[in-house]
Write a structure and sequence with these properties.
It is built from two helices and four strands, in the order E-E-H-E-E-H. By secondary structure, the chain is α+β, with helices and mostly antiparallel strands. Helices cover 24% and strands 35% of the residues. It starts with a strand and ends with a helix. It is globular and about 40 Å long. The relative contact order is 0.19. A hairpin with a 2-residue loop joins strand 1 and strand 2. The protein has a four-stranded antiparallel β-sheet with strand order 1-2-4-3, with no helix packed on it. The chain has one domain: Phosphorylase Kinase, domain 1 (2-Layer Sandwich). This is Protein kinase domain-containing protein. It comes from Diversispora epigaea.
Length: 80
């Protein structure tokens, strides 16, 4: 189950979502995360702040007040 919390990031405090990535040790996790981190930028739909291991891998992602990314996109954007 994802957890929500606050972290310091670039001289401000941001609200984040912490998602545990259990069971991903079987795939090339390091390569996948290197690609994701290499392409991560402010233009991305979801900001990835960190990847941590304690003891499982977890991703620290931008938190959307409106719920999930899907809900946020559905509520704020319309496809024509």
């Amino acid at each position: 189950m994802p957890m929500i919390g606050l972290i310091p990031y670039k001289q401000k405090v941001v609200m984040v979502l912490l998602i545990m990535l259990s069971g991903l040790m079987d795939i090339k996790f390091d390569g996948i995360m290197a690609i994701h981190l290499g392409t991560n930028c402010k233009m991305a739909s979801v900001q990835l702040y960190r990847i941590i291991k304690d003891p499982e891998y977890m991703m620290v992602l931008q938190y959307f007040k409106g719920g999930s990314l899907r809900n946020n996109l559905n509520n704020n954007f319309q496809l024509e």
